[in-house]
């Protein structure tokens, strides 16, 4: 049913094409491992953007905290990655003695390795499940879900909407990142978790190969996320979401508990975003509190706005274009412009450029880059157009009748 | 005839202003009723109270054969219980098609889980309704493209789709052409054959055409009730409402 929609088919084909071509080029040595990683990471960011589009573009909740869920997913997977790798490192030295090491000795050795940077060797309670990949993967999904559920229940029940809700989500995100910055948070303070690109058990596999595996995993995850999102916004459920965005009081009088719908979408997208984070950070190699800072969540909203909210491919286009452009400009890819009296270095000026594009898109292309697709297909924009009581096209005909 | 909806002794004030003052009102299972009154008489507040948008300061609102109390129920629960409301200005979802609007309103489970998972085909049910409201050739047009009158009908269609037992309709004829008014009158009279319909209206000609009992509100309470001619002859009504040269 969903697979019959042209936009879904085109999107999945394009995604498959990009993934296959990149794989072939990587194996032929035409693109670098870091480019493969960049692409894999971008696909994960696109999943987060999809989630943001569901929350904001379809349901009308401008959450400025969704990237925190992404970071939490990264922390959850990062804990297992660090723990397991450190265990592999300390075990040889411990087993050298006459007696096999006790679990306590192992834990202390791992603790010293991991928490030495924050001047501690105790293993915080947060890490009690860190030795298990399935449990940490579950945490990457369930912790964001639980936080979103509690936050959402409190906020939506009190009918906090609009800009007030956005401010609340920002405040929550700020509180979380400030807590993570502390050395005694148990998550290594501003050092964050590092060395995440070294996957335990895959030490003998080259990064050039691991990066391709992650690219494929990210592509498959994005494809699934896209299908689920497209299915969610189709049919009556999608109608109700768009109804809530446009006139939530009216939806209530139709008998729908608006708060339940908002909570379902807020929580579901938080869980998907957490999972995307768990796929992203092993490719990035490091997760630290700066990733969770409020600005990251604002970027997420900017991607969706530039891509075009209220359409799923718009979110993906926005995330891909902006994050790839950002890497190009800040990674030294873009040549500096010498004006004679001043040299524009893009590492400094990229944010200015991004800011300008955001303003320009908001003013002149409110439908975003995704709106360009309309020009191509000739489809009339949803929700924007010469509508309204006095411009209905049947008005003239009616008066005659 | 037993009352389907019974409002008794309800008061509501906003910042000291008594919008509704000890109002009592009841309507039977199958009945068409017009509520008239000058601006500020509390007509819209009355609807807000019944549909759960505002809570009364005192008094009771009971509904159904079990006389369930509606005070304290959420808007969505009241709507699910069978009370439908039509707003003064047409509020349809302009961004969505006629079918989508109608399907959203169709009587069916409302909780997010079953709406997401269970997806029975409902286009036929929606199409049948669209025929009743004269929109069967506009099924896949977006509601925003419809004329003012068509939007009003779409909204009435959405109300019928909910299969409510009580229909509260706020100024349905506002901004309509004569032809559109006649059609709207017919829709409301038809709807009242099987349920209770309360029409709030300013327009006396429209009320006359409905040919039903009339309740006159004034300063938050009922001033008079009965057939239109009887009510119009009431000196108090003439004094506060009809005698004045306002938009009635």
TrEMBL record, chain A:
Bilayer topology term: Multi-pass membrane protein
Subcellular location: Cell membrane
The organism's place on the tree of life at top rank: Bacteria
Keywords in alphabetical order: Cell membrane, Membrane, Transmembrane, Transmembrane helix
Organism: Jannaschia helgolandensis
Protein name: Amino acid/amide ABC transporter membrane protein 2, HAAT family
One function term, GO molecular function aspect: branched-chain amino acid transmembrane transporter activity
Example of a GO cellular component annotation carried by this entry: plasma membrane
Keyword Transmembrane part of the UniProt annotation: yes
Chief location: membrane
A UniProt-annotated Pfam family: BPD_transp_2
Transmembrane residue ranges: 38-57, 64-83, 135-156, 163-181, 213-233, 260-280, 286-305, 312-329, 349-373
PANTHER family, A to Z: HIGH-AFFINITY BRANCHED-CHAIN AMINO ACID TRANSPORT SYSTEM PERMEASE, SLR1201 PROTEIN
From TrEMBL, chain B:
All residue ranges annotated as the ABC transporter domain in the record: 5-244
Keywords of this entry: ATP-binding, Nucleotide-binding, Transport
SUPFAM superfamilies (alphabetical): P-loop containing nucleoside triphosphate hydrolases (SSF52540)
Cellular component annotations (GO), alphabetically ordered: plasma membrane
Claim: Transport is one of the keywords in the record: yes
Residue ranges the record marks as coiled coil: none
Source organism, top-level taxon: Bacteria
Gene Ontology terms, MF aspect: ATP binding; ATP hydrolysis activity
InterPro entries assigned: AAA+_ATPase, ABC_AA/LPS_Transport, ABC_transporter-like_ATP-bd, ABC_transptr_urea_ATP-bd_UrtD, BCA_ABC_TP_C, P-loop_NTPase
One Pfam family per UniProt: BCA_ABC_TP_C
The protein, known as: Urea transport system ATP-binding protein
Source organism of this protein record: Jannaschia helgolandensis
